[in-house]
Design a protein that fits this description.
The protein is an alpha+beta fold. Helix content is 40%, strand content 12%. The protein is built from six helices and five strands.
Length: 222
């Protein structure tokens, strides 16, 4: 007795005449991604992103033409009102040194790590190399040149001389301005407190002991 075996299904036809019109999975995903991208481009980029792209393009064109965005800023420096138009990327340190000729504030690391550029802005200590000039509209800036009263030195300047608190002198302007801020902030209760609150100012000559003594002298502790 014989059993009838089922016939196997015939292979799909080959050639152009028998090709399936249903897209493959890969083709479907690729098509969907492309259509989605067009939809995003039309709906989103046509709005805020397109405007941002146009602004960036305009900025690149201006940069290529040698034109940098600039702003006008007015601030008081050592008691004198100053108004200047500067590149928006200009730091307070470069404004003071290159535009106003106040070279007491030194450019040491230019990264906010050494304190040689320390100045007072509205009575607070700041690293001038990290501060954008255009953000200081109406601010009151004091540099080391503005501490003395005519020919009369600031008490801390005199204390640095009395205590021989410098060697090469490069960091001294920043040390003095930072010391003034430290005293005004009331952080002079002990040598340890002074060292802590002056720790942002580096002296590569190692005159820290005498610097602390100068701050103590000015604060009235010695």
């Amino acid at each position: 007795m014989s059993a009838d075996l089922p016939e196997s299904a015939p292979p799909p036809p080959t050639g152009s005449s028998g090709a399936s019109h249903a897209p493959s999975r890969r083709a479907f995903i690729a098509t969907g991604t492309a259509v989605g991208g067009v939809a995003v481009a039309g709906g989103v980029i046509g709005g805020p992103l397109l405007a941002a792209a146009e602004e960036a393009s305009a900025a690149e064109e201006a940069s290529a033409a040698g034109i940098s965005p600039s702003s006008r800023v007015s601030l008081t420096v050592n008691g004198r009102r100053r108004t200047v138009t500067v590149d928006n990327r200009t730091s307070l340190l470069d404004l003071l040194r290159e535009h106003f000729g106040l070279t007491g504030s030194k450019k040491g690391c230019d990264a906010g790590a050494c304190g040689a550029c320390t100045v007072l802005v509205d009575g607070r200590r700041v690293n001038a190399c990290l501060t954008l000039a255009v953000r200081l509209e109406g601010a009151d800036v004091t540099t080391v040149e503005g501490l003395a009263d005519g020919e009369r030195l600031h008490p801390l300047q005199q204390a640095f001389i009395d205590q021989d608190a410098f060697q090469c002198g490069y960091c001294t302007p920043g040390q003095i301005v930072s010391g003034v801020g430290c005293i005004q902030e009331g952080h002079t209760g002990s040598p340890e407190e002074i060292r802590e609150w002056m720790s942002g100012n580096i002296c590569r000559c190692g005159c820290y002991v005498k610097i602390v003594r100068a701050v103590e002298q000015t604060a009235g502790r010695k």
